[in-house]
Amino acid sequence: MAAASTSHEPWWRNAVLYQIYPRSYGDTNGDGIGDLPGITAHLDHLEWLGIDAIWISPITVSPNADWGYDVADYCDVDPALGTLADLDALVAAAAARGIAVVLDLVPNHTSIENPWFVDARASRDAEHRDWYVWADPAADGGPPNNWVSSFGGPAWTLDPTTGQYYLHNFLPEQPDLNWWNDAVRDEFDRILRFWFDRGIAGFRIDVAHMLVKDRELRDNPPTDDTDDWIDQIREQRPVYNTSRPEVHDVYRRWRLIARQYDPERLLLGETHVPDLATLASFYGHDDELGLAFNFPFLFSDFTADGLRAIVDATAAALPADAWPVWTLSNHDVSRAPTRWCAGDAERARCALLLLLTLRGTPVLYYGDELGLPDTAVPVDRLVDPVSIMYQPVHNRDAARTPMPWTADAGAGFTAAGVEPWLPFGDLAAYNVAAQRDDVRSTLHFTRELLALRREYDDLRVGDFVDAGSFDNVWTYRRGDRLLVVLHLGPEPVSIPMPGSGRVLLDTHRTRDGECFARAVEIEGWRGLLVALD
Ligand code: NOJ
Ligand code: CA
């Protein structure tokens, strides 16, 4: 499935993935909302760039309380985004370019408008009642336990019709499914097969660590100052509503299904857990998730020592047969060029060099290839409920704005004069067309790096050996001959080299091809990929 497959290993180990936020990639019918034909229309860009697979954030039917992450129908396309026929056309057009299509699956919760929940809340003996998590009020009439929603406030809402509370670890519009119910498990087996049979190459699994909750619904214990910062904000350790041991049964079951397909289908978990041992557990014994997202890496400081510590600890924590996955940005966090790089293009290229030279599967977020920073979305244009609640501290809309294809009216995203669903950023500063015309651009840098990944097996599957950090410079080897020198600080330094060699790619692009002997001088905020003789 991936163009660069060199071994019997699963295709995703050789692949570069690229996340698309479907409402923001290309709008073909002039309603200001990106759609599936709009992704198909831009496949040439992805092929030119060298992408092996796209992961598209949810495209299934949704009333959009949480922009697609509240699903009303798991087996159809949301009308704002297109039709199943549009999806089939996208999958076929992508396959013709050697690009696989991965979708987003949201199994932890549905929409309140999902017919299962509409039925479940109608009466205590409804057919789908036990598909959700219901509990009687506490003695004082309050929620059944102390669990808090990931978005703040109690994780329970009282449903007056039947006098019980239902669980929602996110918005009240996102009721949690009851994964203790075999009918739910059977239904999701069917959903997986429905999409896999259509040629979908795999799923990114939303809040993969959360599906199964404590059967007794026990209270979570309080945090102390050793806990993860997110848990400290929520003032409770999520012992009983996340990462329960029984969740692993679900992934063992799904992996068996994924392995019935050729090529095997990818299960990529949004394993939003703070510690690497728990993260490692989601790989099982090569019989659970194929890839599990690494949030400690995403939330690291952008320093040589901070990143190095997490990358080395990840290598130590993961089982030998597990394969890491790395990402700089996604639709829930500030983009790396803003969060890590203070908007500085040189630093953004250092981040890309890191992402694309670590051992593991890299996932680019649309716009990463341009070094695209966050967009300053005015408060009256915010549409994400979480951004509305938590801006300016936490603003997800800033990273979800339309892809800037050109600097023209409509940005090549939509027709001129159409107001996009979220505003454009600074089109003159960042757009695909201008960067394609400039061989020194971040776009060309990213493309060169992807080409080098195809050319050098060591960049994809070679061993990773940490070669040490010196002040703000981190060096690591891939395979026997490739070395990455990453300088995440301002002052020029001289780095001793194990021998002579040649620069394959320089983040500034002025030293490509340069030969060196026993040392390399490296300027501030610069990275080099070098081949040793
Ligand atoms: C994680 C998704 O990435 C995020 O966008 C969403 O709000 C929550 N899960 C709830 O589905
Ligand atoms: Ca549209």
Description:
- This protein has helices at about 35-40, 45-50, 85-95, 115-120, 180-195, 230-235, 245-260, 275-280, 295-300, 305-315, 335-340, 345-355, 385-390, 430-435, 440-455, 455-460; strands at about 15-20, 55, 60, 75, 100-105, 135, 155-160, 165, 200-205, 265-270, 290, 325, 360-365, 465-470, 475-480, 480-485, 495, 500-505, 515, 520, 525-530.
- The chain is an alpha/beta fold.
- The strands form five sheets. The protein has an eight-stranded parallel β-sheet, with helices on one face. The chain has a six-stranded antiparallel β-sheet with strand order 14-15-16-21-18-19.
- The two termini are about 35 Å apart.
- Mean pLDDT is about 95; it is low at about 1-5.
- Bound molecules: 1-deoxynojirimycin and calcium ion.
- 1-deoxynojirimycin binds near residues 69, 106, 170 and 206.
